[in-house]
Amino acid sequence: MIVHDTSALLFWTVDPAQLSSKAKQAIEEAVRILVSSISVWEIALKVKRQKLVLPLPLAVYVERPGHLERLEILPVAGRTWLKNQDLPWEHRYPADRTVVALASRFACPLITSDRVIAHYFQETIR
Question: Is domain 2-125 given the CATH code 3.40.50.300 in the classification?
Answer without folding.
Answer: no
